[in-house]
Request: fold
Amino acid sequence: MNVAPACETPLERRLAAELERLRAAQLYRRRRQVGGSHGAQIVVEGRLCTNFCSNDYLGLAADPRLAAAAASALERCGTGSGAAALVSGYNVEHARLEEELADFVGRPRALLFSSGWAANLGVLRALLGRNDSLIADELNHASLIDGGRLSGARYVRVGHCDLEGFERALAEAGPPNPEKRKLLVTDAVFSMDGDLADLPRLAELAQRHGAALMVDDAHGFGVLGAHGRGSLELFFSSPEARGPSPEVYVATLGKSLGCAGAFVAGSETLIEYLIQRARTWVFSTAPPPALAAAARVALRILQAEPERRERLFENVRRFRHGAEQLGIPLGCPESSVSHPQPRVLTPIQPLILGAPERALEFARWLYERGLWVAAIRPPTVPAGTARLRITLSAAHQRAQIDRLLEALAEGLKVLPGSRFPVSASERSSRSRNRKLAAAH
Reply:
């Protein structure tokens, strides 16, 4: 059936103008079609590339054992849950995964959500209201920002990892009051910079000022800690650990576990409360049981094959050492926060380029050479800090990492405007532009 084109409406004109503004500012975004599985080697719009922009840190996204578990569950349980968990969508696969996740991170209970975004929005809206205060790192993930705003709480954003700023904000929120909740929320590993929050110090501050601590460990779960149990294990498992463990723990299944979904772990009371009040959980169809079955297998592989994490960090160290030797100025130094392992690396290794067009040009140049690295631009990162967000995986081979290093070093020499530190004016603009960037 032929459909006549609609007349341009005022809304269409406004949207078209905004799209044109994004194009002119080099901020327009385009999806790239990927064929086949999502691993270290990936076919992007017909070109075979080595993938250096995935969050598949342990190389499990294309593992056939996960696919086999999902296929078996599809035979038993079908493709969909059919309803929200409180209606008829709560499958035995969901229940078993929740039990295994809670046991793995050392919490009494866990609650499965369809995504990390849904988990963060659901928790913050459930726990906070107009009489409450939310104190948050300014570089938290967008889901934490939006969840905080939608909660209606007094929302105080603190400079990135500024412990003195957190203490001031907590003090200004007033003394403990049973009628007014205070919640401090932070990423454990910041997704665009790869640095770590000082969770022990934040936990101490929260306890001292009568606040609860919520941690989003999307990029630490499965990666950090002696056994991959995430930031909880890294920061709070030793006898010397300072401060109480976070009361609210959020992590995702779509990164280290190579699946999809997220979970919140905490006390019996917390999880029962979220079951009653987390709207993104109550009013969402439960995830497909097959995904839960695959995630259970991934969790077992994580525990049975510690060599995956060992290879991951070998790759991270190789990349950083090579970058130092070649003069490639990576944006995130090794973390120096105070915990038993004071020099912790993460798989996220950004190369700050400054202007959006620089990042786009560099990413295109790498793609033509069979290397896929995403150009990250505002509003995902603050203005003046567009970058290549390079991520390492256990699935990467040494030769692939060395090829990327060679290409980065060559690109910094041959691409116009690419050999630079971020200018002083760009550095000074970061702080004042962070609020504007995070607003999106």
Remarks:
- The domain at 64-304 is CATH 3.40.640.10 (Aspartate Aminotransferase; domain 2).
